[in-house]
């Protein structure tokens, strides 16, 4: 009895001790927050124009910023106001991390106002990020326009490596997926989520996802999913990381940096390394105030970091001992029935009435026909609310049953990325099977780059943006979507361009899904477009993520040169482009492959893209980089590129010795002969496996 009393007393004292330590940690965080006087990152954009001192714009900016946080009724951490007229109109946005209380939020934004106007004294557009708030102003509309703004994009990461990396990455992906689902469920005041997940032993991963609340749920989802897809490129294997853009941000750490209630002090500064200079980060301005610079405070490093490190260490010990004394309860549900029910609800909400589509397409008139694919035609349509759509009407003899059709809907609805064509809905009525997509107005990439006149609309900046966008979309499909997907028919005609010439990959008809740990497969039914197919796939039916990498490399070389890789009926051989590029590479004249219509090109970027393209089309698939490495190569010049080996289908290579007729026959498979020919928007679906 006496022993039990001593134990209970010890437990009570221990609890009091841990509580005091928690108060110490919180007070330390408050101290660090008060001392922080440098942004994590900021950008002064000279490209949007400059203003002069005491000009009308300058006065309007000062007026707006001085009153931005004066409305004390706003307690949800989002301020968006405008002031002025016409060219002198200023728009400003202030966003605080969702758990910050009103006083700390206003204090953080007030510090931002003071600092940002000092760092960017003449620029009409600027943005700055503290740990817990963001301030942005511009002479253009930056809120309420339902536009995801992902420029500038800033990467920050913790220099320490995570332990038990496979488990860490798996739990991080699960955490981020959960955070996105919660954030997009927010309202017009706040779209924010914070949570943690147990990773290994007693180590947790803490994460935050937040959008500016003027975005719709779909736009917020696209923004956050895009950021998650950037994690392998910026922060792979690290214990912490952030991806920051004006419209949304994500952050994860192995220590708590947010509070479960609104009574919150700012988090301890983490030891983050600034990213290397990349094309996705703005370049330096003429006045020396570089865009996308990271400014880490010396006082915080010298004073806050040791204090926080000790506090977090002691706090972790307390948490661990408390867990030993009391088993941890699991709050997450693994009920598969809930997931099935959610999928049914989603499909019902996406289903269109056949008569609605028939009216929208003018009864599928030829004047609205956009193209004909192997499994049906694609039509342009306009809904009653004025929204433009693209409708894929599957052929009745396509061999695709109702189950396969529903599986394709389930596949496509899970894919949300700004560089993928969005599925808006479907129709399944009798023998009619329709897929309804967003309408992408500028047709496909091949429509521009292979036309001697229209190619002039794509300057080098636009082409580089297209290369980056396609790379990020493939990285998402291969690694970061909820399903692992191999496209298997990536080509220039399957890359659509929106109003701003942003790329969107279309036609997932040949996509094959994998279990989480499966990276390749075999098929007797080779389907794709000859010239874009990797040799191991064209010859032996073996496909993997490296098959898409090969196709991506071909597209990169086509974008650079403005030439088709495969023949166009004018006597050109299918090997001509790769052979031409490889010969120039070996002779040190690779710059010669650049499209002559390009002006104001960056020779370094051209050469780097040629180098990346050749790495992708190497004959040995093991030598080809994965998409995570490719995205990093495109965004960081600090990454040293390996020397490419001989490409596949190069004149004289081993893969050329097998004739095209053998490749098309695929052994003895009669169905392969057609499928090796050029495909157009085929809409088949293969096995469906969750990750």
Automatic annotation (TrEMBL):
GO cellular component: plasma membrane
Chain ranges passing through the membrane: 299-322
Topological category with respect to the lipid bilayer: Single-pass membrane protein
Biased composition (Pro residues): 266-277
Ranges of Low complexity composition bias in the record: 665-675
Ranges where the Protein kinase domain occurs: 364-638
Subcellular compartments: Membrane
Chain segments carrying region Disordered: 263-291, 650-691
Native organism: Arachis duranensis (Wild peanut)
GO molecular function: ATP binding; protein serine/threonine kinase activity
Domain Gnk2-homologous: start-end pairs: 39-142, 150-257
Domain of life according to the entry: Eukaryota
Chief site of localization: membrane
Keyword terms, alphabetized: ATP-binding, Glycoprotein, Kinase, Membrane, Nucleotide-binding, Phosphoprotein, Receptor, Repeat, Serine/threonine-protein kinase, Signal, Transferase, Transmembrane, Transmembrane helix
InterPro entries, sorted: GNK2, GNK2_sf, Kinase-like_dom_sf, Prot_kinase_dom, Protein_kinase_ATP_BS, Ser-Thr/Tyr_kinase_cat_dom, Ser/Thr_kinase_AS
Amino acids binding ATP: 392
Protein name: Cysteine-rich receptor-like protein kinase 10 isoform X1
Any one GO BP annotation for this protein: response to abscisic acid
Pfam families according to UniProt: PK_Tyr_Ser-Thr, Stress-antifung
Cleaved signal peptide residues: 1-34
């Amino acid at each position: 009895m006496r022993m039990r009393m001593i134990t209970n007393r010890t437990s009570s004292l221990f609890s009091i001790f841990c509580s005091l330590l928690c108060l110490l940690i919180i007070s330390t965080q408050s101290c660090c927050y008060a001392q922080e006087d440098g942004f994590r990152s900021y950008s002064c954009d000279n490209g949007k124009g400059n203003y002069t001192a005491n000009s009308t714009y300058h006065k309007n900016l000062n007026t707006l910023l001085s009153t931005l946080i004066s409305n004390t009724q706003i307690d949800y951490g989002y301020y968006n106001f405008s002031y002025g007229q016409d060219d002198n109109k200023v728009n400003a946005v202030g966003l605080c991390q969702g758990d910050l209380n009103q006083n700390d939020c206003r204090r953080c934004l007030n510090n931002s106002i003071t600092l940002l106007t000092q760092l960017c004294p003449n620029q009409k557009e600027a943005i700055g990020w503290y740990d817990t708030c963001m301030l942005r102003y511009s002479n253009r509309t930056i809120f309420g326009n339902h536009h995801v703004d992902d420029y500038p994009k800033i990467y920050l990461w913790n220099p320490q490596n995570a332990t038990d990396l496979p488990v860490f990455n798996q739990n991080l992906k699960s955490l981020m997926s959960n955070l996105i689902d919660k954030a997009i469920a927010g309202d017009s005041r706040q779209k924010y989520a914070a949570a943690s997940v147990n990773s290994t032993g007693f180590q947790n991963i803490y994460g935050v996802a937040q959008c500016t609340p003027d975005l719709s749920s779909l736009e917020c989802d696209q923004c956050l999913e895009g950021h998650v897809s950037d994690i392998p490129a910026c922060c792979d294997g690290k214990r912490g990381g952030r991806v920051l853009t004006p419209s949304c941000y994500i952050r994860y750490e192995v220590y708590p940096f947010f509070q479960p209630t609104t009574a919150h002090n700012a988090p301890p500064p983490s030891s983050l390394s600034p990213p290397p200079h990349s094309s996705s980060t703005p370049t330096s301005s003429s006045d020396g105030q570089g865009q996308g610079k990271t400014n880490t405070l010396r006082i915080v490093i010298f004073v806050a970091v040791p204090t926080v490190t000790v506090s977090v260490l002691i706090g972790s010990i307390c948490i661990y001992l408390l867990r030993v004394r009391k088993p941890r309860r699991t709050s997450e549900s693994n009920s598969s029935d809930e997931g099935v029910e959610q999928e049914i609800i989603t499909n019902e909400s996406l289903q269109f009435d056949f008569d609605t589509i028939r009216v929208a397409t003018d009864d599928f008139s030829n004047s609205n026909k956009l193209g004909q694919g192997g499994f049906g035609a694609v039509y342009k349509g306009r809904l009653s609310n004025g929204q433009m759509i693209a409708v894929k009407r599957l052929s009745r003899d396509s061999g695709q049953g109702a189950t396969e059709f529903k599986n394709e809907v389930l596949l496509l609805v899970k894919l949300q990325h700004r560089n993928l064509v969005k599925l808006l809905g479907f129709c399944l009525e009798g023998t009619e099977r329709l897929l309804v997509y967003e309408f992408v107005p500028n047709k496909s990439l091949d429509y521009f780059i292979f036309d001697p006149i229209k190619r002039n609309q794509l300057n080098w900046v636009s082409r580089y943006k297209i290369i980056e966008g396609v790379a990020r979309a493939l990285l998402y499909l291969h690694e970061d979507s909820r399903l692992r997907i191999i496209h298997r028919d990536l080509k220039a005609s399957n890359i659509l361009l929106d109003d701003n010439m942003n790329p969107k990959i279309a036609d997932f008809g040949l996509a094959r899904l994998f279990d989480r740990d499966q990276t390749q497969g075999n098929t007797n039914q080779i389907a794709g477009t000859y010239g874009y197919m990797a040799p191991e796939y064209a010859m032996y039916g073996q496909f993997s993520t490296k098959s898409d990498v090969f196709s991506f490399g071909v597209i990169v070389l086509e974008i650079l040169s403005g030439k088709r890789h495969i023949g166009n009926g004018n006597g050109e051989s299918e090997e001509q482009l790769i052979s031409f590029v490889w010969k120039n590479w070996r002779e040190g004249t690779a710059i010669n492959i650049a499209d002559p219509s390009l002006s104001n090109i960056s020779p370094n970027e051209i050469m780097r893209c040629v180098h990346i393209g050749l790495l992708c089309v190497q004959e040995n698939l093991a030598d080809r980089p994965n998409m995570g490495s490719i995205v990093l190569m495109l965004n960081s010049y600090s990454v040293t590129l390996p020397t490419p080996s001989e490409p596949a289908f190069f004149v004289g290579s081993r893969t050329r010795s097998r004739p095209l007729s053998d490749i098309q026959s695929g052994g003895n498979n009669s169905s392969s002969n057609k499928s090796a020919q050029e495909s157009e928007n085929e809409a088949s679906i293969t096995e469906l496996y969750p990750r």
